[in-house]
Amino acid sequence: FPAISGNKEITWMMLEAGAETDVVNSVGRTAAQMAAFVGQHDCVTVINNFFPRERLDYYTKPQGLDKEPKLPVKLAGPLHKIITTTNMHPVKIVLLVKENPLLAEVEALQKCYRVLDLICEKCMKQKDMNEVLAMKMHYLSCIFQKCITFLKEREDKLDGFIKSLLKGRDKDGFPVYQEKLIRESIRKFPYCEATLLQQLVRSIAPVEI
């Protein structure tokens, strides 16, 4: 009901309280599908971007034969904030990294992007495959890896990355670097059979930079 009435705040509160996103109603539709049907796309975005903190906290504990956790506890909060953001603009993502001193270090970003890759794999291999979340995790991982490159190689570090993303070409102001980064991240998505990937490629391929 919050989703089909367009109430983003209550939708988010219910998700945080443990509401399941894949439960269906009497006509076999999820809350996100019902919200989409009545045009409440903001609520669909909230549901599709939701990622329970417990699923991330799993990586903060050693698993199996691991002596160390894959993700230090101190990074879980900042990483979760980025995972659940609904603004996917690369500059916004880099600014979220930059504003947190714990994240804006090479070693921290390396750990984070490896965890994002693991979550991406899990989203594709679980019984109820979630291609949207998998693509988002992969996209964030690609941006984190680019952040690492700039932190290692450029004196202006993440400021340099942001400038590159915002800089438009002389003749029309088109942000070429940003476009290439997004296309590259889509091209590197490891699950070629994904319907979402094929849709993205079909819509992007005919457009010339």
TrEMBL record:
It comes from Daphoenositta chrysoptera. This is ANKY2 protein.
